[in-house]
Structures are given as structure tokens and as C-alpha cells.
Amino acid sequence: MTPNVKRPRRKLVARPVTFSPFARSAAHLASAYMIKRQMIENKLHESCQHTPNGKCCGQRNIDETDSDSDEESSEGVVQADFAFFDPKPDDFHGVKTLVQTFLDNEEWNLSGFVDLILEQTTVGTVVKLEDEDDDGLFSVVTALNLGRYKASDIYMQLALELVPLLIRRLFCRSYCDSLNRDDVVNSMGSWLWQDHKCMKELEEYILSVCHESNLVEQLRLLFSKRARDVGLLVSQRVVNLPPQLLPPLYDALFDEVSWAVEDEPTEELRNSFRFKTYLIVTKIYKHKKANGKLEKKADNEEEPVIYVKAEDELFHELSSWSFSFPLKIQHVTSSEASIYLLIFNNILCPRTLPSFSFFTLIFLFGTLRANTKAPVTVPSAVSYNVNLLVSAEELRINGVGYGSRSRQNPHIPTAVALSDRR
Amino acid sequence: MATRLQFENNCEVGVFSKLTNAYCLVAIGGSESFYSIFETELADVIPVVKTSIGGTRIIGRLCAGNKNGLLVPHTTTDQELQHLRNSLPDSVVVQRIEERLSALGNCIACNDHVALAHTDLDRETEELIADVLGVEVFRQTIAGNILVGSYCALTNRGGLVHPHTSIEDLDELSTLLQVPLVAGTVNRGSEVIAAGMTVNDWTAFCGSDTTATELSVIESVFKLREAQPSAIVDKMRKSLIDSYV
């Protein structure tokens, strides 16, 4: 063995085609096409199978005559049927991927959080392809009650601290390696405190990034005294999910919340879904030069704020209050980020709980500051030039089932038109 | 002894680290806790080296090595190569190879005696692997997958392969590699074994999603429970003491 022998370094003149820029772009197009094969472009017709107790395994397909392919590289239109399912434990990996950047790049008990989402089968929806049995998840939407995952009183909290210590003591004596000890503690404690850890970390993170003192106080209140009325709205999806799915998706969520209020087995669970406040954490792009004002555009054509998710613009307008803070994660656009937190009142989704006259909706937005030099529409990570016309009337015209559903809902926000931005 | 950890909320530990019997490579840019967990476990036994390869953090999948040497792809910069040569023990030969398949960690699974290679690897690369790493190279597939480095985690004492590997394949591979093999998963059902964990003869690091069952399988197949770096010395000591009983 002569490792020091210099092997003749031949110049790789005839490089394999995979290394050329052309081949790279060809491969990129091919992969984009593969994704498109799974994405809906047109022809969703709705047939919904709601069961009265709120479990919706409906098939949502929306008719659309003017299918608009929104990426320059699309070659053909593919049909795909999406279906909404209840969260299952098998969905763990898909949901975890979607929720990965929920709290920026903070290290927290993400797996525990995903487990919480998955065990709440009555409220929450995952979007998958209808026919295939694969685990490809496209979206997850759910609402978690913050108060439910709290230790109820001081004795419980003491127990949470002491019991692991006691267990560790016990197992220290016996021959038991650290692995088994930790697992015993974890499994015994999972119903007591493992769930709580992720919510606690989430609350601490939100409190730590909020730099406006008056809002911090309100947040603290929400997380402690009023936690039982607060619902954390988790809505994550792949960037280019067809927007036609959004109204049914949110409808399903709020339907399930209202059904849960009536149908949950225990009184406590029923009350836990009577949300008075929704908290939304989300990401937006914020123009570097925009100094916190969202109402007006700057003098040029660049928008001050770009919403990664279309419905966020609507929620933003309706929120009671909000704040933003910068994201540390470097997104594809390699621009800085800042996050908004918004709080609304008088939300238009009270159909879920008709007994409450108004809501407060809290938003947390994550924004990415667009580079002032580059036009805002350039980043491909934001599917910005999406023709989004989402209104109940539109869909009814196209034969979609708001009208055909058994429950009429007069409170849907109408005419949410986010026009095509190029 | 198996440890669970994560790299920036990501449970794919085998992507961001490379563990052998003589050294450990760790990606830069992670939180200090990631680095310190390796340090705590490996302490003074073997050096823990922070590095990047080709400016990326996915070092576990780009390089392949054992106690004799380390193979890095052509995308490694000169500074990184020099840093590796400086930080690793002198007995470890660091060699940069020109190979079309540059993710060597995905293409090569090796321990100190034998290696499995991607079927499409160059003949020259195969010779280099045999020279630098001091191993016998076999071109194989695992459960029909040609990326043997991804779907197999291998040490001198055992191996864990893709869960869908058939019994016949398991027997065949086991005979080739001369170690016991088990088909299993890591990180709560992930099939990409080598991305989810990294292992050497006495310790393993797995993603934090790994269930207790998976962890016990890992500990038993790699014989980690009784393994210590100075196992040989301890064994001799025990036999000495036994003689007095």
C-alpha cells in the first residue's frame, strides 16, 4: 500500500453531461415536472362526505375552467385528486417536515408537538393524494387549545418536577443502563409532562421574540390566564398547493371545531374547543425599507409585504394586533426575515361558535425582508404570481359545493381576491 | 452505548457527522450542544473534528472512511483537505478522489476490513478504496437499492440494513461481510439507516426520533452494551479476577 504515490491527475476535459449547467437546468425541469404530476391543475369537483360528528374524510375536487398554470416551466396540465383526512400517527414524518420551521430554527421538542397534532383526530386535517397510499403530505391544518396542555395547578407542577427525580433514583439502584431509565421516565411521563414541554417551549419562544412591551403583557395573559380560550392555528403546506383547496380546508377546520364543541365525549374537551382567540404564527416577506407600515405601498412597484400563504393577507387585515420579528433561517432567497404578530378582532369566522359574538385573532407573522435591489417577485420560493380568486360566489358559479353542502355558512369572508401579481 | 441527539431540529444525524474507530467528523454550523454531545461521549479516545466538505454541512454523506483512511470527493476545497490532514491522526490517510458519484458516503459502506460499493463506481475508485481504506471491496445492492452507503450502517461487530432486505440477501451480505446483520429502521421508521445514525465499535449516535425498540435493536446488533473503548483490557482484567474466585 503506497498511499503517497501521486496518481496521474488527468484533466477531466470530457466531463459527464450531468455536470454541465444545461444538464442541471434540465434536471431541475424534470423534477419540477415530477412535482407537477402530483399537483392538481384543474378539474376538482367536489363530493363531500361529512359525517355529523365532524369526522370529515371528504374528497375535495373543485371545478375550474380557467386553469392557470402559474410557473413558466409547466409543460402540461396534470390532474390529481386531493383528499382530506384526519390526522393519523402514520403521518408523523410528513407533518414533521411541514412543521419543521414553525419556530424558525429554534431547537425545541418538535416531535412532541407533532405528536400532539396527530393525537387530536377530531379537529385537524391533513391533505394527501386520494388514490395512492403513500405518505406524501401536502398540507396540515389544525387548532390546538393552549390551555389543554398546561399543568392545571401548583401540585401538578410540583409532581411534574419531582416524579422524574424519584423514578431516576429508583432505577439508579437497579442494573439499568441510562437508556432504559430515560425511556421509562419518558413513557410514564408522556401523558403528564412530555406533551407540555413543547407548548411551554413554544410559549417561551414567542415571548422572547416579542419586542413590544405592551404586547408581551398581553401575550403573557393569553398564555396563562386566558390559555383555555386560545387556539393555536397551525396551517402549513407546500408552497405551490393549489389555492382552490384553501376554502374547503379552512371550512373543514372550523366545522370540526364547532362539531367538537357539541360532540366531544367529555365536558372538558367540549369546552376546550370554545376558542375566543386564535393565535397564528406565520411567515411573510417584508420589504427592507418598509418600516412597519403595511397599509401603503412604497412609491415604486414593490410591495411592502408579501404573504407566503394567501389567506394570511386576509387574516392580517382582520387581526386585533400583531408583531413581527426577524427570522434567523436563511431562506432560498437569502434575504433577511422579520416576523409579524397580528391580533385581530371581529373575525369573520364566528360561524364555528355562534354563541360568541366576536373573536380576537392573534397572528404571528414571519417576514422575509426582500432585497431592495431585486424585484420582489423574483424569489421562486414564494409562489407569488398565483392567480387567486377565492370567493364563495366564484366557486358557486363554477359548480363548487358551498351551495350543495348541508350547512349554509353565511359568514364566509367573501371576495377575498388576491390578484395576480407579476 | 447509544445516544440520541439532533442537529438543528433535524434527526438525520448520519448526514451531519461521520464516526469511525479512529476519528469523528462533525459538521460546522450546528449548535454547540451537537458538538458537545460528541465530545462528551468520545472525550479523549478519538479526536472530534469540525469540518465542512465543499462548503456544505452534509459531510456524513459526502465522505467515506474507516480507521485507516478517509476518502473525500473532488468538491472538497484545498483548505478543507489541509484542515482534515492536520486534524486527523497521522495513521489516517486522507485522499481526495475524482469520481463522478461524489456523494461517497451514499455510495460506500465500510468498516475496517470490508466495504460495499455502488455498482456504478469507477474501477479506479474501487482500487483507491482498497488501497486507502485497506479493505476488500464488493459491489452489491441492498434491497434492490444501489446506494449501499445510505441503506446500511456497518461496523466491525455488526450491521444494520434497509428494513425490506430479504432473508436471502441478509445471509448473502452477512457471509460477504463476516458480521451479523439485521434489517431494521431508525428515526421512527426511516429506511435510510446511515442518514439517521452513525456508529462505531463502541458507541452510536441516533436521531432523537428513534424509538426505544429501534435503539435496543441497534444496541444489540452492534454489541454496544458491553462495549467500551478499552474493552480488551477490561476483558483481560475480568478473566484475571475470575481466577481468584
TrEMBL record, chain A:
Superkingdom, taxonomy of origin: Eukaryota
Compositional bias annotation for Acidic residues: 64-73
Assigned protein family: Belongs to the BCP1 family.
Pfam families reported in the protein's UniProt record: BCCIP (PF13862)
Organism: Linum tenue
Region (Disordered): 51-73
InterPro entries hit by this protein: BCP1_family (IPR025602)
A Gene Ontology term for the protein's cellular component: nucleus
Protein name listed in UniProt: BCCIP-like protein
Taxon lineage: Eukaryota, Viridiplantae, Streptophyta, Embryophyta, Tracheophyta
Automatic annotation (TrEMBL), chain B:
Localization (cell): Cytoplasm; Nucleus, Nucleolus
CDD domains tied to this protein: IF6
GO annotation, biological process: cytosolic ribosome assembly; ribosomal large subunit biogenesis
Presence of the UniProt keyword Secreted in the record: no
SUPFAM superfamilies, A to Z: Pentein (SSF55909)
Keywords: Cytoplasm, Initiation factor, Nucleus, Protein biosynthesis, Ribosome biogenesis
A Pfam family it matches: eIF-6
InterPro entries: eIF6 (IPR002769)
One GO CC term, this protein: nucleolus
GO molecular function (one): ribosomal large subunit binding
Main location per the UniProt record: cytoplasm
UniProt function note: Binds to the 60S ribosomal subunit and prevents its association with the 40S ribosomal subunit to form the 80S initiation complex in the cytoplasm. May also be involved in ribosome biogenesis.
Self-association and partners: Monomer. Associates with the 60S ribosomal subunit.
Family: Belongs to the eIF-6 family.
Protein's name according to its UniProt entry: Eukaryotic translation initiation factor 6
